[in-house]
Amino acid sequence: MTLSIFAQLVVSGALIGLVYALIAYGFQLTFATSKSINFGQGELVMVSAFFSLTLITVGLPYWLVIPCGLLFGAALGLFVERAAVRLALQQKSEGWILLTIILGLFFFSLAENIWGRDDRPFPTPISQTAIQILGVDVTPVELSVAVGVFAIMGLIEVFKRQTLVGKAFEAVSADPDAGELMGISATHTVMLSYALSGIVAALAGILVSPITTVGPTMASALILKAFSVAVVAGLESGFGVVIVGMFLGALEGVASFALGSGWREVPGLILLILALAVRPTGIFGKAIIRKV
Amino acid sequence: MVRRFVPLLLSLVALPTFAADTLKLAITGPFTGGSAPMGASMRDGARLAISEINNAGGVQVGASKMKIEVIERDDEAKNERGALIAQEMASMPGLSGVIGSVNTGVVLAGDRHLQEKGITKIITPAAGSASMTQWVGKAPELSIFRFAAHDGIQAAMVVEEAIKRKFTKVAIFHDATNYGVSGRDDLQREIKKQGDKLQVVATEKFNIGDKDMTAQLLRAKSGGAEAILIWAIGPELAAVANGKTKMGLTAPLIGGWTLSMSNFIDNAGKNGNGALMPQTFIEEPITPKAKAFIDAYHKAYGVNRIPSAVSAAQGYDAVYIFAAAVKQAGSADTHKIKGALEDLKEPVQGVIATWKHPYAKWDNKDVETHEAFRRDHCVMGMVQDGKVVFAHDEDKQRLAALAKGP
User: Is the ipTM of this complex over 0.95?
Assistant: First the structure.
């Protein structure tokens, strides 16, 4: 394996890995506030991508499609929170696990019936022609994934740290009951986190669609990788998912070149098992100390 | 209540007498899902032939004419759905025959139910070799026929094409399905058979749903592959074509007829240009008959490109061959139709070719007796700007001559 091939594999893999990271970040957002995650997150990615594709076919310009798609994602996130999560949380039950899975299946059938089961190309004004950077071929579309991922994650992190609502977010995530006593509505904060999570899912859909095409099953492969990333990195650290996502993507590329394409997934799975065996809270996770 | 039910019951009893002067023909295939371009085109091509026949009064059976009544079932390309549908067909009273199936797995799951009852079936456009070879050495009598260029022919053509283009190093790419893996085996066998003139520098696999083909393509590139021989379906074929362009790999794709599927051509866009695949029909009006067929299809279904032209033409011709067998048998009885199919006296004028004695009496050791297509019926097609065109101009005359007949 020459250096240039290695660099190509690492860069292509890491760029796809960023999409895993973005979806995993969607898990983190809701987990932080409510200790619940949306198991139908992949379907949110898919339905938002289909919705954006419809807007494009109707003739909306691309720069307008992005905010509309993100708003749609936020609405979907709120719907998931209201329909599947809120009641279960109030009753302190784990019902949200099953309910989010069911909602995911529902979105899947909905998409099949509205948009059909075919994979469709997603037109984008960003060029698909490769450019060479330091001997590595990348397309501007792939670079747009990186830009989009870093931009949205940066914005959300700044929002969490610098604004009052963001501080509330952190407070509820630390202790919802204490937060309520300080006048912070836990319900509203959880809603906000689901809306943000929906936005993140929609952006992942819009960014990845030009590369993967849009179809009802487009997210099923991505979502499993995103779970791995979230578990290996831990459900606490945004920085962690980016590192682990890029690493996992690159590892897959290198493995399928060095070991053969049938072995692509294996190193990632070994990594997952190792992480769970050695650090169950994730590499970047904090051990939660509960004082009784 | 009772008074209301009696006429209803009577009408149910009366139905079979109406059915007696129609010919029941079932069309099955995936009309939804990833294989739908093939299934739906086959169905629509068959419908076109059926409406032509019905508009002319129906099929001549003995002294009277019978109209064709179509029964359609969507198998969704799922093996278990296919098995259920085949069971339904096997127990359907008065069914004359079945035309269809796109997926080899569906054929393997379902056809034994039809064969048990001796229901005549023409498989089209499923190409996997196993659909027919499963009967070798097992069935003394066989009611299953195929109307498609099987993978054996296709792999031979793909290897021939690579040798003809003076390539010496190739990579083999395939998906992890039955279709992809058996395609890889066919390719390796053909390379040996045609004198080992091609050196395989990489054999690469991918899964359904994979979009990032960087590693596989880099292995082909670093091995110095001059062409990529490929067996997969639409979406993954497109991912390979797109990745190839990204890495500046100019080696052409040569592969199974699935490279003509609309979901490859659309998703690959201009990156799909130059892909080569065996075809039995190309959407170009090279004969008056072909022109009439293409125009009629476009008009009937409001499209300007047939999603899978091969499937549509094969569905169309299969109906005419079936109708010819009914006419010769002088009966709507499926067993008699099978006998007539094995010895069709009159040539059938189709849109692909004029079919002279397409099938022979089933020989337990020779699947060719129930295979209609030979190497001569196939040409190389090439993707060009969103359409499949003839890769070699001389093929146009050859196909046109076949269609003209005697």
Answer: no
